[in-house]
Amino acid sequence: MPNAASLRAPSPVQDLFQVKRRSFSAPFLIVAIFVLIGGYRLSLLDRGALSIPDELQYWEAGDAIEKIFFDHDIRGGFAHLAGKTSLFGSTDKPAHITLRLLPFTIQGLIWKLSGGIRARDPETGLITSGVHFRNPEFMKIPMLFNWAVSLGILAFFCKISRRFFKGHPVWAGVSTLVYGLLANSNIYVRHILPYDHGLLFFLAAFYCVLKKTIPVAEPLSFSRCAAAGLLSGFAFTVYPGYYIYPFLTFAVIALRPRESFFSKTQFVRYLCYGGAALSVLCFYEIVARIGGLSYFGNLHNLSGSLDGSPEEGLTYVPEYLWKVEGVAGVLLGVLALAWIFLRAKTLLRCADLREPAYDVKAVPYI
């Protein structure tokens, strides 16, 4: 005999974000999408690296290793880790250099152990050996690193989509497919630039707190907020152009259902998130100081060197969707507006909730 609780109608939040059981075809669909997009992006790795001047900052990772381990110049090595370049001045993306240490180390080890990857001269057709590890032939290694990062972004996008599409894995798969085939989602896989790497860590931070908020609000521990802060701070030091993203993650923490914005518990969450993010920036300031630079100074110089037309921000999204993505972009914009319109009534009902999703006082936070 069912009890009254089991017969109670679902709340508006559950109605909007309800996670349903997986359909039989969902796992196959997700795997097929990843195989399709992963294979397509692998086909893009045959050319393109180092064709953009900003990509030359990749060599900072190699210069740092050379200075520290071969020249025993700690100060010079840390200067390169902080982003010291002779062509562009000091960079404001030190964490991007940190991430590039991994593919560069693999690149150097392969070169060292193999005596140089064999390469074919495009003019004579002769096989040559002893290729220097900075030769474009070796750029496929960091490009493969880009490929793995791009699939990581796709995985987090799929996870986030499943929470916004009521847990329907098929619709989450469709949205992942559309996102994965956009031009802007694929163009940087062949270039050694920080954009995708920063986006990966921002999505990880966003999902870290979103997982405990949607579809049903669950206890959000202080340690989880700190982890999201570390990821957001690291992502900002990878690429500060995504400066708005940490505020989106903060909004998920601050606007939790049935919790006061100014409660003591929320205040501690803010401190954990903000303090952790700031600690990453301070860490790179220390690294830069050891190298005779200043990370915060680089950020200040960057803010003074930027120019543009602020009013273009109002038209950027539609212009981008049309001029860059074409018909697919227009379709994406129309579908997004349609979804917002169709869900507006349910979203308004969510604002009238009267019952908390869980007992705040009865749940430990650490």
Plain-language structure description:
The protein is mainly α. The protein has helices at 4-7, 12-17, 26-42, 59-70, 74-81, 94-114, 140-164, 169-180, 195-210, 222-238, 245-254, 264-290, 295-305, 316-323, 327-350, and strands at residues 119-120, 127-128. A hairpin with a 6-residue loop joins strand 1 and strand 2 (127-128). It starts with a helix and ends in a 16-residue tail after the last helix. Strands 1-2 form a two-stranded antiparallel sheet. Helix 3 (26-42) runs parallel beside helix 8, helix 9 packs parallel to helix 11 and helix 14 (316-323) crosses helix 15 (327-350). The chain has 15 helices and 2 strands.
Distance separating the two termini: 38 Å
The averaged pLDDT comes out at 79
Question: Main sheet, how many strands, which sense, barrel?
Answer: 2 strands, antiparallel
Helix content: 55-70%
The SS-based structural class is: mainly alpha
| Residue runs with pLDDT of under 50 for 5 or more positions | 4-24, 351-366
**Rg from alpha-carbon coordinates:** 24 Å
Strand content: under 5%
The shape is globular
Oligomer: single chain
Count of helical regions: 15
